[in-house]
Amino acid sequence: MGIGYAALAIKAGLNSFQTILMSFFVYAGAGQIMAVSMLAQGATMLAIVLTSFVVNLRYFVMNACVYNKVEESSLPLNILSAHLAVDESFAMFSLMEESSIWTYMGLAGIAFSSWVFGALIGVLVLNILPVIVTNSFNISLYALFVALLVPAIKNSKELAILVVITAILNVILQFFIGNWSLIVATLLGTVIGMYIVDDETILGDSFSENDGGNLLDKRSCDNDKEVQL
């Protein structure tokens, strides 16, 4: 995916240095791919920032779950680990019995290095790859979102309906508010989801067993990981 991001970033007008620096300082995965795609379409910087914020809001929950699980940490480590947060390292740490912040930092650091290295490879090899191959990276954003969505909706009809409703809203709103459609559609989809998707669907058995209590305990975080993946 890092190579796919690099292809889209170069196509959007970023130079090689800017492409790699964005991976290093932003490190948002789907958020980066979406940002450079919006940049290529002429979106405003404010629209890109707000859309990225909405898409990456899940990291707030992920980091809260990690800090709830670890036994000892510090503010500097929390800040650094928050920057390194990503779906894959969160999922692996949630499944482990280990509760050390250093274990999580190790997992997250490997994922971070892989992403940045992928972007570096991308900017180096794009000029020698056939055009048909570089053009194929245009579907990277769609492939990434499909990978995130399918496991979450395959066992929930309500979530599947919510995804379809949000997608339809996005398409319709594009004719009226352009690049702001994704932000508004996502927010409207969130509001609709509050009414058609119950908490037990999202949180699994832990919600019933805890009677809707502390949603950031370790078992709830484990279930959140399953939804994100």
UniProtKB/TrEMBL annotation:
InterPro entries: Brnchd-chn_aa_trnsp_permease. One of its GO terms (cellular component) is plasma membrane. It is found in: Cell membrane. The keyword NAD does not apply. It is a multi-pass membrane protein. GO terms for biological process: L-valine transmembrane transport. Its main location: membrane. Pfam families: AzlC. Keywords: Cell membrane, Membrane, Transmembrane, Transmembrane helix, Transport. Belongs to the AzlC family. This is Branched-chain amino acid transport protein AzlC. It comes from Methanobrevibacter olleyae.
